[in-house]
Amino acid sequence: MYDVVIIGAGVVGGMIARELSFYNLKICLLEKENDVAMGATKANSAIVHAGFDAKVGSLKAKLNVRGSQMMPQVAKDLGVKYINNGSLVVGFNEEDEKTLESLKERGEANGVEGLKILNREEILKIEPNIGKGVTCGLYAPSGAIICPYDLAVSAIGNAMDNGAELRCNFEVTQIKDLGSHYILRSQDKEISARYIVNCAGIYSDKIAKMVGDDTFCVHPRRGEYLLLDKECGDIISHTIFVTPSKMGKGILVSPTVDGNLLLGPTAVDTEDKGDKSTTVEFFESILDIGRKSVDSIPANKTITSFCGLRSVGSTGDFIINSPVKRYVNVAAIESPGLSSAPAIAEYTCQLLTSIGLSLVKKENPITKRKSMHHFREATLEEKNQMIRENPSYGKIICRCEGVTEGEILDAIRRNPRPTDLDGIKRRTRAQMGRCQGGFCSPYVIELLSRELNIPYEKITKFGGESYVIAKETKK
Amino acid sequence: MTDLVIIGGGPAGMSAAISAYENGIKDIVILERDDELGGILRQCIHNGFGLHKFKEELTGPEYAHRYAKKVRDLGINVKLNTMVLDITKDKRVIATNSQEGVFEIQARAIILAMGCRERAKGALNIAGSRPSGIYSAGTAQKLVNVKGYLPGKEIVILGSGDIGLIMARRMTLEGACVKAVCELMPYSSGLARNIEQCLNDFNIPLRLSHTVVELHGRERLEGVTIARVDENRRPIKESYEFIPCDTLLLSCGLIPENELTKGIGAELSSVTNGSVVDQNRETTVSGVFSCGNVLHVHDLVDYVSEEAEIAGKGASEYIKGINKKGASIGITVDGKIRYTVPQIITEKKDVTVYLRVNNVYKNVKINVYDKDRLVLSKKKLKVAPAEMEAVKLSASMLEGVESLKFVLEEEK
After folding, report:
1. A353-357, B26-30, B186-190: which has the minimum mean pLDDT?
2. Which of B37, B177, B260, B316 is most exposed, with the fewest beta carbons within 10 Å of its own?
């Protein structure tokens, strides 16, 4: 019997698990996929928003501003890359300028500090490659970038270091309330828990219905992205948004914490919760759109493209409530969900207390985690010391991103343990560079097979039927 | 201080090392990231290598072995499992391996021989889902030939580069069914002999002017939509065709791996994606040479070895302080000829200029002009992008020349 079961191991579920793991509780995180961070967490804009977008007084506004303030410390404790690069919303005419003024006012009402309207000359001083048509901009010094799956993996790893359990490939299909506790079923498996936290992303309405709550629904909004080579990462230093219009927030151009350049997302509502395909229309238009706000985005520097599904709720705000006893919804966490994640975790814990969960702090909870990038961030001297102690740090597996065998082995042996190729990719960046695994994937398959003691043919890209090998040639 | 540091122990690096050694430089180190010498030849188990160089048909590993043996016999220093991380402008090479950690070598001269990589799926902007089962042809080759695993059973290949053609045959021989090879261009980018021996002999259809427009399948690949393209290489909607398959191999071009070269500050050509070099294969940074597929993509390894010999000799002269440079003849092209290597001639001696064209042409002349004066004219029955051409210029032809222009003239 668990005290709390969290459904969904994305960044929100992960941050809540981490927060709860500081208390004397038996926790389990359930995930329907083969690994953590598989939903919206792995495919979003990777931005910590300043907090001027959300409506004054909304939960989104409150948790965004609070989350963005908490993020530097959280990132530091978890060893997650976070860069406070500042953001810029650019405008192209007088109407945009008016919109920026009202955004600034809204931001100030939300408690965002340091907002400033800049003219073209002022923008050029901080962003020389800004688009030719840009006339004005709203500068937010607290805007930042972070790696979302790094945050989720690290938070879940931290929770597991404190004793939380993770069960992947556990898709909750039925929830039964037995009065004192719930039974959660997935095919032939079942577990019981006193409290449930629903962080199931685009499936959170489905979970809510299982406990009899049909007060909301969520639908997926497709967002396609283009990721460019690291050669392009320094074209700009700030995250560049365009002035929001009736047509939505528009396409942003941003450096990533790993030094690439990210363009996106589109915003197309859909019914299909499994459709993460990219479209021809996107490829045809994205560069032209991006070039309006940032000059000199080169063609032919794409290293990958992907589509994420944001969970858009029917209320317009985050849905964090307790419609039935011993149960909490943390649903409709669309943008600024990543930015808000630390604050959502804090808020959810308070809500759980208010519905009867008793929180008693552990004596010595682990609150910090060694960075997944500790080797690459080490000094030359430290690196050499580490190679002497563990020669596998001297063997480069992924040449594009310079990832060593030692780092891949660390990732395989550490919580939460990856069992597929994409899991290794998200934790170490091996296969994530310009050749996209062309050279290193055969080695990564070998390391996974050896370490997990499973045959080549059983290794997958991301679980399910996503096998990478058909058969041995000589069998 | 080491006289000569060679980065890469594939065919280019090995041949350059032997050439430098034979020209009197003994203090050489080859840095190789893999656990054996040979580079990509190690996975090319098919034959057809060495016809020019050795007048016999060798497999890739056999060809590599001849050079590796010679490197060993000469006692040339080789560091395996060693990855170069950075090269500075003052020729310090920073590398890492398990025995020495991160270390530095100060070189007198450097030969860049890092080879190339395949254009990856992400760079092709193919719409659709992101399932498993999509490999570059070289990755599939490594899995089948070195690791002993077949990546899939029903195959479509996009791109008719040589590795794609070779893999079409290889997968067929391993029991897979290759349903089609799609080529965006109206002609193949592979060698004619490979089209015969790898596709026609196995009845594998080559679909020219076709591309893959969409991927299907949420976990493993379940099929691809292919389409015919118009003269502007735009897919024609009416021609969409679904082919069920569990594997897509990509053979869509090779890209010289010049990330380290950028660190040194050597000028790169936007056409070859390799360094700009002179007749000795010296880059715009004095004492830094480049050869093999990191300089420009070759179709035959024999030519790689030849080019590396030139670079090895050039580096040996540089180290010995022999400087015969007395010219600066820039070579330009007309566009039909995409590029030449070298791009500049700095010494008036016999020079072979290699070039590639941008399309298939029949009955042409490769004309070399010094301003308006025709220096040389070479007739060709057929030229194609897949096959590199060579033009020999003698020292006497270069007398009084300031610049050269290579022009492809079609006969009326």
Report:
1. B186-190
2. B177
- Does ipTM come in above 0.90? yes
pLDDT mean across residues, chain B: 96
Radius of gyration (C-alpha) of chain A in whole angstroms: 22
- Domain spanning B120-252: which superfamily? FAD/NAD(P)-binding domain (3.50.50.60)
Q: What is the pLDDT of residue A244?
A: 87
pLDDT in tens, B14-61: 999 999 999 999 999 999 999 999 999 999 999 999 999 999 999 999
Strands A87-91 and B361-370: unpaired
Centre a 10 Å sphere on the Cβ of residue B399 and count the other Cβ atoms it contains: 9
Pairing of strands A189-198, A327-331: parallel
| H/E segment holding residue B383 | strand B373-383
pLDDT digits (tens, 9 = 90+) for B292-312: 999 999 989 999 999 999 999
Report the residue from B150, B215, B219 with minimal CB separation from A470.
B150
Domain A380-458: CATH superfamily, name plus number: BFD-like [2Fe-2S]-binding domain (1.10.10.1100)
* Structural element, H or E, at residue B167: helix B162-173
Q: Match 């019997």 to its residue by tokens.
A: A1
Select from B139, B174, B213 the Cβ nearest to the Cβ of A441. B139
pLDDT in tens, B246-282: 999 999 999 999 999 998 999 999 999 999 999 999 9
Cβ of B117 within 8 Å of Cβ of A435? The answer is yes
Among the listed residues A353, A390, A454, the one whose alpha carbon sits nearest the alpha carbon of residue A19:
A353
pLDDT of residue A475: 64
The Cα B278–Cα B49 span in angstroms is 27
Asked whether A30 and A6 are in contact (CB, 8 A), the reply is yes
DSSP 8-state assignment for residue A445: H
pTM of the predicted model as reported, rounded to 2 decimal places: 0.94
Q: Are B98 and A387 in contact (CB under 8 A)?
A: yes
Q: State the Cα–Cα distance between residues A475 and B11, nearest whole angstrom.
A: 33
Inspect the interface and report whether the beta carbons of B98 and A472 lie closer than 8 Å.
no
Paired with A224 in beta bridges are A307
- Quick one: closest CA in B to A406, which residue? B98
Tell me which chain B residue has its CA closest to the CA of residue A280.
Answer: B127
B274 neighbors B258 (Cβ within 8 angstroms): yes
- The active-site residue, picked from A49, A219, A238, A373, is A49
A49 is an active site residue: yes
Percent of chain A with pLDDT over 90: 93
Q: Specify the domain boundaries for CATH 1.10.10.1100 within chain A.
A: 380-458
Length in residues, chain B: 412
B55 contact partners, CB below 8 Å, separation of at least 6: none
Cβ of A394 within 8 Å of Cβ of B121? The answer is no
